[in-house]
Amino acid sequence: MRNRLRIVTIVLIAAALFYSCDTSLDGDLNENQPPKTSLTVDNIQVDEESRLSSRIDISWWGDDPDGYIVGYEYAISDTSEGNWTFTTQTDSTFILPISPGEETDDVLFAVRAIDNEDLKDPVGASVEFPLRNTDPVTEFNSLELPPDTTYSLFSFGWSIDDPDGLQTLQRTEIAINDTTNGWTEIPIEADDQDEFFVSFDITDASQSEATAQVFLGRSFRETDITVDGFIPDGENTFYVRTVDLAQAQSETLEFDWYIKRQSSNILILNDDASSTSIENLNYHMSQLESLGFNFDVVDISDGVGLEGGIVPLSESFSSVINPTLNRALAKWDHIYHFSNNLNRNINYGQEIFEVFFEDGGTLFTNALISRDANRTDDPLYNFLAISDFVPVNPEEAEDGFIIENGAEVTSMHDAPDLIYNGGFSSRIWPFNSVPGSIELYEADLSKRLVFGQKEYSGPSTIAVLNPERNVLFFGIDLTDLQVKDNSGQDISPLLEELLINRLGFSQQ
Predict the structure, then answer these.
(1) In the chain, how many H helices and how many E strands?
(2) What angle do CA 130, 133, 135 make, to 5 degrees?
(3) CB burial class (10 A; 0-12, 13-18, 19+) of residue 93?
(4) From CA 244, how far away is CA 342, in angstroms rounded?
(5) Beta strand 446-449 pairing with 438-443
(6) Residue 457 CB neighbour total at 10 angstroms
(7) pLDDT digits over 76-115, tens only?
(8) Do 474 and 439 contact (CB within 8 A), yes or no?
(9) At residue 144, what are phi and psi to the nearest 5 degrees?
(10) pTM, entire model
(11) Which DSSP symbol is given to 234?
């Protein structure tokens, strides 16, 4: 009993003590302490010649005595409120702005930490960077420049750079023939854009000074930019330079070339590299003139094929096939091409005439058929209406085909018959045409043997119009032909049939 009373008494005393105690806490809560910010570099001492580039790697960190850091704000030059930028990074590369027109400048960079209660370092950390601006650089892309002479469409390619970083570049700009009357800006469309390809299309070359519309990139993207001051039928100078944010300019580059005024919708391409190239050109021009045609002329007879191979694309053409050469050739409605050899520029026809054909152009090409029939990868198979060249049998000592002086070249349709008068027997190669084409002429051929010759009675087609009716190939040099029963070299009746009746050549 005594033990039970003792336990009850202890419980009552404990309960009384519990209910009589004040359980509240007294004292003041500690206020949030601001974070502190530090820069890896807080002072820079250099002489004038050792000033830094405006492209700077900067790093920093923060500490908070009673919490943790959630981010930072930085400001460049202007530290007034509203000019700070938030980041969670602790380092970055900055392009610090040098004042426009100044070669050197001291640029302030400031940063402040922010803690988990959104309290900012009231002091922060800052450093002034002593900077020297570096001039930008402009360079022509040598494979993207016009040839020595162009007509009304041409392109230029160039690249830009700046040791301070591409982000410091403000603009690249061009001028034509005169830099004192202002420059035309070409837009820099992305921070990392350092390559430019710009095409110019003169819309009206009849004036003494002409205006060109500007197209951008290999996609030939149309713009509302125009450039004045081009001189048709005269020497022209293209200027280009680049300007950075500090208004420093690169060296001004210059390129000189000649612009010819287009006078016709018919273009002659002289692809004859023989010793009589000029005489042959005069002959072809006289035949077109006899039909009443005016024309423009481009000489593409340069270049030699290695070991009898195909010649490089003529240097008279732009080396940029798409878009420049394609669109330049499409300026004409009809093209008259002649050559002394099939291993020349006609092999690039499928590439260079793409837009020309899309715009409804028609092409006449005249070249002696001197092709090796054993080639299976011949690019002409994809362009002319030729499925293959007729093979020979080397086991019987056959070595190709010949046409003799005085042999007939017979029309396979309603066209004038012809006589070959090219002198000694000439090597020539007949072909099979593709389905849907129109075979226009065949020749009286013989098999050429290692010793002598023999009769030949197989396919002898030497002229064909393709299924699309926009490419006509004639495989004997026209200068070696005359119209049957006519004297002299007047072949205008033949050309009237081929050019006007078959290809629709007409003068604007």
Answers:
(1) 6, 33
(2) 165
(3) exposed
(4) 51
(5) unpaired
(6) 7
(7) 999 999 999 999 999 999 988 888 877 888 999 999 999 9
(8) no
(9) -125, 35
(10) 0.81
(11) E
